[in-house]
Amino acid sequence: MKEYQTITEISGPLVYAEVDEAIGYDEIVEIETAQGETLRGQVLESSEGLVAIQVFEGTSGIDQNASVRFLGETMKMPVTEDLLGRVLDGSGRPIDDGPEIVPEERQDIVGAAINPYSREYPEEFIETGVSAIDGMNTLVRGQKLPIFSSSGQPHSQLAMQIARQASVPEEEEGDDDEDGSEFAVIFGAMGITAEEANEFMEDFERTGALERSVVFMNLADDPAVERTVTPRMVLTTAEYLAFEKDYHVLVILTDMTNYCEALREIGAAREEVPGRRGYPGYMYTDLAQLYERAGRIQGRDGSVTQIPILTMPGDDDTHPIPDLTGYITEGQIYVDPDLNSQGLQPPVNVLPSLSRLMDDGIGEGLTRADHGGVSDQMYAAYAEGEDLRDLVNIVGREALSERDNKYLDFADAFETEFVDQGFDTNRELEETLEIGWDLLSMLPKEELNRVDEEFIEEYYREEDDEREVVEAAD
Amino acid sequence: MSKAESTETTGDGVIQSVSGPVVSARDLDARMNDVVYVGDEGLMGEVIEIEGNITTIQVYEETSGVGPGEPVENTGEPLSVDLGPGMLDAIYDGVQRPLDVLEGKMGSPYLDRGVDAPGIDLEKKWEFEPTVEVGDEVGRGDVVGIVEETVTIDHKVMVPPDALEEGETTEIASIEPGSFDVTETVAELDNGESVSMHQEWPVREPRPSANKKTPRTPLVSGQRILDGLFPIAKGGTAAIPGPFGSGKTVTQHQLAKYADADIIVYVGCGERGNEMTEVIEDFPELEDPANGNPLMARTSLIANTSNMPVAARESCIYTGITIAEYYRDMGYDVALMADSTSRWAEAMREISSRLEEMPGEEGYPAYLAARLAQFYERAGYFENVNGTEGSVSAIGAVSPPGGDFSEPVTQNTLRIVKTFWALDADLAERRHFPSINWNESYSLYKNQLDPWFQENVEEDWPEKRQWAVDVLDEETELQEIVQLVGKDALPDDQQLTLEIARYLREAYLQQNAFHPVDTYCPPEKTYLMLTTIETFNDEAFDALEAGVPVEEIIDIESVPRINRIGVQEDYEEYVEELKADITEELRSLY
Ligand SMILES: Nc1ncnc2c1ncn2[C@@H]1O[C@H](COP(=O)(O)OP(=O)(O)OP(=O)(O)O)[C@@H](O)[C@H]1O
Ligand SMILES: [Mg+2]
């Protein structure tokens, strides 16, 4: 392997070096500084005689005397089932004093696209135990469902609650899960604070979840450019566990905003023509190459489900990061600062939230036959109640009709009874739907035009059945 | 070049630099749009720029590990598709590689590199039945025979447009029925040319036609708001812009399922893998409403998902429209859905920026508007070169950043298309689906399609539609007042109008794509639903005039049944009864 001491330019995270052999695009590079430190990087552009290298750890410490080695291969992640229970840095090296990891395989971290013909459509309900999700925005195995949040919100608690509680109902009964697949969590931290990271780690340790988890940590003070490889390391591990070792893998990536900032930084250093708000024009494609690595594959037992978390700059979902994410993922869960300040736990705003795969994952034989109708009806009623709240501020409750007042009561009760369950409460779907019917029964029967009549017959509580809930809501 | 034949390669070059999907080579003897094989692995690419000795290539596969010094081979042929029986019930990537065949060849669920396959099966035998005899005169595009491609579609074997000059004719020298594969000759012509079931066509070049005509037949979609308020013509163009999650894909899927076209070409351009999987899983099971056959039998799918190479995303639109034109030439009505044209535009932008071209608006290349126009221009109601009539309808989803319609792709599209289905985030958030905004959307085909609806549904179709539009308009105005003072402050007649409008919105405009019955609404049912609401309107206003308080009118027991018309299979009877009940109940109040 040839060594070069030919660095011609250092600019931000980029290093340019002259070479006299052919270097492959995307190849891995090692740079040894004069101080003896070894940094890693990747070829971003390769032309005859000159390559541009993106250095993961940042370029500080590099000068023109540093030596450059090209490893002749693209970036790989060493994978094995033994990764479960381990804590790694953002480039996949162990940082937990555990034993050396002996890889079974080394896989390219730029995963090849799954052939759409080979996919299997995701439709197995995952019970998260969170009513706002299970009841209204159901998650299924193989889905990518991000949490749209903003700084200072308890999105981590929600993600932890899901990771802790998530189960596929039949698994709990233990017997009729034919594929016998196990559940694993892969946690990828990108640029989060040590404090946030600790919260996750403590939760993992407290609940014993670490054993069935792999943790990748790139913290706020770790190199920003490394963030562009962390999720690829995470997803390569996830695909290996899911499609070669039959695990149902839940991937939590936090915070995608930091990932996108790193992309922007590299783009700026390369003096690329920027897209919207300075982010690279190819950010949609780049993000898709991560998010599309969720899914199910025909003939394989495992699955990769993704819950990426992102903090929306300015709580604005038209910002390119949430916007492009929403265009790729299969729905989104909104964490709402207003609901948070009202004390709702979790503060999920179900109105803009959506699970695109819900329709195929619920209903008779999957969850419960009335599930779809209940959810539609609650959406409609909550939305109407929400609207009326604005009006109440102007004209007062008295000026509203009896019908309108019922909707207002419904909206309040929906938040306090249905959404605000606490981060430690695990609700079964049955319970979620029962609460749903308690709430719907606050409305006149004739108003329930989105639920089939037979379900109204079966579940609607006539006047005096369930008074307490209605009372409690006032 | 087409993958069905292995062409000699000429004028090899050497890679000079690699940057993502863009590779430049020197010493390559090539013309614009030639297909080349790049690097030791022979990745497929297309020449997109030539400057002196340097040729720039967009590569349709991932380029990781490819480096300078590796060879580039030129095929000397432009990017083309293989046309012939076998395109229906197939699924392709953006350069027409069959994804099912690739899965087999690669032996993996992941898309590997450097593997190629022809767009149609070259070995499969088809039963060919001549429709002309020896001595018959034929011109270009003329049909010489048919093969049954699927249970639904007879594939017409045509004289290739390039076998003769425009207007020139020749005679059939020999033709036999029998079992042939697509490469075998099924007919010889007097001028020495031979006809097989296989044609090739360069994707970036429209197939010739005799004439474009004014479209006068609707593409009936079974979606109430589309057929009822904003119809598209067979041969028409439509755009569906909307923010994420507003229903673009569901609308496109609904059209692919229920539109009364003969052939559907569905292009998944830079969108989700699972959405294509859904189509692959559902369509073979779903019935074509026209004949009960599996929907896949009339469908050709092109899936270049968001994580697949971006250059192949750029070409997938062309691959799709060329296949559509080929079936049009057979005299079929073809509908093409492209989800999403914004991803296509972004692919152009990505390539353009790697070429360091001068960026136009928001970084898109200056030729964005021209490319969009060229694409939609390939749609239309045509008189074909063989004298038959056929159509290509093009329906493009648009995904504007932040849902803001003022961006370049939406704006340039709106300048071209004649139907605009504006999706609305507010409606979607309320779960009002399809969340097509009735104030903003329009169809410029409306008037020219009225005669068809009058003849085939009811004479007063246009008047009924106008009535609905008027009520909805009035509601929009009244809502502004309600926002300020509340509903109860309005006079009785206006309160009643609001109630009528509510039924229009909730029963008529909303339609649940996931309900087994409601998902498809024939125009007759659309019409009856509207007349039921109108009956309520007329009777209610009579009652109001007779002094019945508005609360009592609104509260009658029968009227909420309007909301359930959509889910009725035997809707005629249901509607009949409901109209009678509403009338009776209201009249009993005075
Ligand atoms: N006609 C409809 N009936 C019922 N539900 C619908 C309908 N249209 C849309 N939806 C709901 O809206 C969701 C989002 O729709 P869709 O996937 O079509 O959005 P989109 O506009 O294509 O978004 P993106 O730009 O992110 O691809 C669907 O998953 C479904 O739940
Ligand atoms: Mg879509």
UniProtKB/TrEMBL annotation, chain A:
Keywords, comma-separated and alphabetical: ATP synthesis, Cell membrane, Hydrogen ion transport, Ion transport, Membrane, Transport
Instruction: Specify the protein's topology with respect to the membrane.
Output: Peripheral membrane protein
GO BP, one annotated term: proton motive force-driven plasma membrane ATP synthesis
Molecular function terms, GO-annotated: ATP binding; proton-transporting ATP synthase activity, rotational mechanism
Q: Which residues form the ATP synthase A/B type C-terminal domain?
A: 360-460
Q: Does the keyword Membrane apply?
A: yes
User: What does UniProt give as GO cellular component?
Assistant: plasma membrane
Q: Where in the cell is it found?
A: Cell membrane
Q: Per the database record, which ranges form the ATPase F1/V1/A1 complex alpha/beta subunit N-terminal domain?
A: 7-72
**Homology family:** Belongs to the ATPase alpha/beta chains family.
Q: What is this protein called?
A: A-type ATP synthase subunit B
Q: Which organism is it from?
A: Halorubrum cibi
The encoding gene is: atpB
From TrEMBL, chain B:
- Quick check: keyword Secreted in the entry? no
Q: Where in the cell is it found?
A: Cell membrane; Endomembrane system
Broad class of the protein's primary localization: membrane
Catalysed reaction(s)?
Answer: ATP + H2O + 4 H(+)(in) = ADP + phosphate + 5 H(+)(out)
**EC supergroup of this enzyme:** translocase
Record-annotated ATPsynthase alpha/beta subunit barrel-sandwich domain positions: 118-204
List keywords of the entry alphabetically.
ATP synthesis, ATP-binding, Cell membrane, Hydrogen ion transport, Ion transport, Membrane, Nucleotide-binding, Translocase, Transport
Q: Which GO terms describe its cellular component?
A: endomembrane system; plasma membrane; proton-transporting two-sector ATPase complex, catalytic domain
Question: Which HAMAP family does the record match to this protein?
Answer: ATP_synth_A_arch
- Write down what this protein is called: A-type ATP synthase subunit A
Q: In the record, what lineage is assigned to the organism producing the protein?
A: Archaea, Methanobacteriati, Methanobacteriota, Stenosarchaea group, Halobacteria
